[in-house]
Amino acid sequence: xxxxxxxxxxxxxxxxxxxxxxFVVWPFIQSIYYxxxxxxxxxxxxxxxxxxxxxxxLHDDIFWKSLEHSLLFALVLPLVTISLxxxxxxxxxxxxxxxxxxxxxxxxxxxxxxxxVYFFPQVLSIAIVALLFQFxxxxxxGAVNSILRGIGLDSVQPLWLGDPNLALWCVMAVLVxxxxxxxxxxxxxxxxxxxxxLYEAALLDGASRATTFFRVTLPLLWDTVxxxxxxxxxxxxxxxxxxxxxxxxxxxxxxxxxxxVLVLYVYxxxxxxxxxxxxxxxxxxxxxxTLAFAAIVMRLGRRERLEY
Amino acid sequence: MKTTETPAPLPxxxxxxVSTIDVPAPEPARRKREGGVLNVFSHGVLVIWAxxxxxxxxxxxxxxxxxxxxxxxxxxxxxxxxxxxNWSRAWTDANxxxxxxNTILVVGGSLIGTLVLGSMAAYVLARFDFPGNRFIYYLFVxxxxxxxxxxxxxxxxxxxxxxxxxxxHGLILVYIAYSLPFTVFFLTAFFRTLPTSVAExxxxxxxxxxxxxFQIMLPMAxxxxxxxxxxxxxxxxxxxxxxxxxxxxxxxxxxxxxxxxLAVSQGYKGDWSGLFAGLVMAMLPVLGAYVVFQRQVVxxxxxxxxx
Lengths: 308, 307
Hints:
The complex is a heterodimer.
Chain A: H1 5-34, H2 52-58, H3 61-93, H4 111-118, H5 120-123, H6 126-136, H7 143-150, H8 167-192, H9 196-204, H10 209-237, H11 239-248, H12 262-271, H13 276-300
Chain B: H1 15-18, H2 27-63, H3 68-73, H4 85-92, H5 96-127, H6 133-142, H7 148-161, H8 168-193, H9 197-204, H10 209-220, H11 222-237, H12 241-246, H13 255-269, H14 272-292, H15 294-306
Domain ABC transmembrane type-1 (chain B): 100-293
Membrane topology (chain B): Multi-pass membrane protein
Organism (chain B): Streptomyces camelliae
């Protein structure tokens, strides 16, 4: 096997590794370096300024606002999305009543239909979803308020995205809407691999559905839930939240920066305000938050691995 | 909802644990009622969520056939007649056809590139022992957890300096680079599970490493390639952040950017019906493809996430 082995390895790795290093790794390294400069991004000149950008960031009110919103995203979104998805997945896979002669464990009626429909938003671009809901939230002619009018709630006509107290929650609701389906399918696949004997035993011992869920399903699904949690958190801190906030809220960033998130703030500083160095500094903060989030979830969620 | 059917399989002792949702009921009927209440509740939630998912999509389809005035005056009423002109206006005047073409070019090129380059790297990393193997593997896989936004500012200038800004092939190269972490991670695991004997036999028979890879390993890896291909297709088709930064030429816009651009410009022109037609146009192909290939899509996405 030695014949030409190294030439082959180099030949096969050169192109993928080269592209990856050039467009992913190198920009990452550069961005940390740039955060110590006063580079504007508009001209090639810059000089080193030490930790100036970092001190500036610590005194920047909008940075703290965006950080607060990003943390809220990373806490609330996974919690709501994953709880809903666990409930749906349990009902779809385990929650059904036993039919005569059927398997011990089955989903509710129509479960395969639910599984298909719930996944719909996942195949749509988040940009399209954001545009659609921007119209639905329109206070005058949007679908949401006209439903409210239709059921006689004329007095309740919120501004939704225009209301600084509501805008952030409206944006989050859209992200929940678009991601629950993925987790339903993910958890369904996990639940399908739990042996039916375990459920049978639990049912024989007289466990209710709630007990079955907390004592059998959840512990055996723990690894999947945990990686789903990290995945959702990374989405909520990064690309997905950028698209919804940038497209849906006015400004963008919402009335009085009420929906600005870290990732949007990086974008604005770099490509709107011509402060590339400062943008990379905020980007480093975003990286720290993301890694800390993943580490905390992994740490808190650590349990003994269950073999089955 | 289903209280008349056979009683739930739950034994009677379960009464205590679910009683929070239960209503006080006479003892004999208790078991039946309680299962019923729980069932009605959970079925209800499932149905409500299904309605919440489907309604916005149907509303968009319906709106795309309405006239501008009725979109504003009565958002929920059915169209007075089917305004197909909205669709033709969006397709030609609003450049939806160009955005579609650009997206197909970019995604087509990136998808092929990602699969070829990703499987080459993954094969070498999974099957050959050489110094630096682990380091390169973790270098690739580490890319999955980094926020792309951090790299975007310097990336813009890297791409700019290479003269690739606002070009289709530049976008393709960047898409490939950002798709590699997951692709390499997934396919490395996949190549490790494939049996070695066939490849070794081919090699003993005198096939080169390259030939063994393309003629034997790649065909064997087809299920893995399909899974990771679907994952990348959806991701690249729906990509918004990378083109927003790297591709500002109006003629080169991809679908997602084009629609956002359309939303801004139609806002000035007041052509909301045209915009909805564009939105639905962009939604229907992927939704349709999903309904047809539903099983493969779901398997492809979950196989990756469960590894």
